[in-house]
Amino acid sequence: MPVSITEDIKSVSDLKKKTREIFEQVHRTGRPVVITVNGKPDVVLLDAALFEKKLKALNLGALLAEAEADVKAGRTRAAQDFLKELKRGSKI
């Protein structure tokens, strides 16, 4: 999701004057728009569906990091042992 420096960086004044156009740009291009205040980046506008997709990926990454830490710390067991226990507990 690259940002176009010439198209995707807008001032807060631009946002106030051209809100609808900027929202349309975000939806049309799928790229975020960086809003600046006094010439410095302040907030990022992102399509809600794309934000949700990125958030899910981030959450998955956090879960994978936990799993990797468990493997490194030796907090694992054989899959066969787990499945046997699952069958016993669930009466499968």
From TrEMBL:
It comes from the Bacteria. Antitoxin component of a type II toxin-antitoxin (TA) system. Belongs to the phD/YefM antitoxin family. Coiled coil: none annotated. It comes from Candidatus Hakubella thermalkaliphila. NCBIfam families: phd_fam. This is Antitoxin. InterPro entries: Antitoxin_Phd/YefM, phD/YefM_antitoxin, YefM-like_sf.
